[in-house]
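Why does residue order matter? Because the sequence determines the fold. Keep that principle in mind as you read this record.
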Amino acid sequence: MNPKNSDKGITHQPLVSIAENVQVPGQSQGENISCCPAPADAPPPRTDQPFVIGTLETPAGAVPVVSSVLTLSDHWGTFKARLGVGRMRYTVDPGLYALGRPDDRSHVMVTANYKMSFDCLRRALPGRDAWILVLDTQGINVWCAAGKGTFGTDELVRRIQASGLSRVVSHRDLIIPQLGAAGVSAHQVKRRSGFRVIYGPVRAQDIPRFLEKGMKAAPDMRRKAFPLVERIVLIPVELVEALKIGLLAAPAFFLLGGLGGTGGFWENAFSHGLVAAFSLLTAILAGAVLVPILLPWLPGRAFSTKGFTLGFISALVYVALGRCGAWAEALGLVFLMSAVVAYLAMNFTGASTFTSLSGVKKEMRWAVPAEIATAVIGLGFWFGSRFTV
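Structure:
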């Protein structure tokens, strides 16, 4: 990577060439993949993607060029993804990209094909030139994909071969995000491709400092905090996903509340069903908004425990302020709200930075049955109260 170079000179004109300058390593260097053909099912990235600003000719063919400066379209796409709109389709084509004007000595960064991950990486490297090797993680970010196996050794080796990377660069170093380490076996990558894996910092913003230190990570580069601002950023998508179900279930509670009771159907629906419907929406707000905000201060290690605690407190406040009739109705809402908040809190483990896949699986083995049982008991008390005098 050459900090002195800038991507400002890239235009939409084809094509700048580095083919005549690149030095292709020979077998004397111990590499054994330079002759390997690209897999037939791994086409190169399309050059008509909206964020591509040009192409760069290499010994392996034309490579799409991208900028470290995000456009309004990029920011709009991120905004929609934060709200859950088209989130699972927010991807870039896997393969090799050029950031700025890299040459055969420029660093190679590896990332996922979730566009937000891709954008985060290129935005962190203003004024620098690098190669970006994008793996097909099926639209999942680096950390989650590493746990699921899509950001892994096989896919990395496959993309190295498909992109012809050994013909593009004269070195054999790959900088992998530290959060992708769980899915990548460095010695297997070296044995199968000849490329050495170097684990970069946790945060993309630390990459420039990491490079300036000779690809050595300071202790703070290896630690990942989960501050309030990062938790707040995740609230919109958690809230939108929960409301998709909540806004369908709330009318059902409203109508069920009209059954039984001493008054007419609509009188009961507005006096009891409406209270139940709003209790569900209140629980969603508590689970999707308050849990991320209050996460460090909620008691318990398991997210479900934190959720049960907050759900119970939220339910008591709601019942105290609401106009619940019989004790069974109030008790039912307490159980129901506690279960909903606990489930949403458990779901937030996928967005946190300090949970492990094994830990989440262990928690789910007891938490999911507990949440279901709590919800069923609550529904029984609440619905049963409609037919008691």
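The beta strands are 16-17, 54-58, 61-66, 95-99, 108-112, 130-135, 173-176, 196-199.
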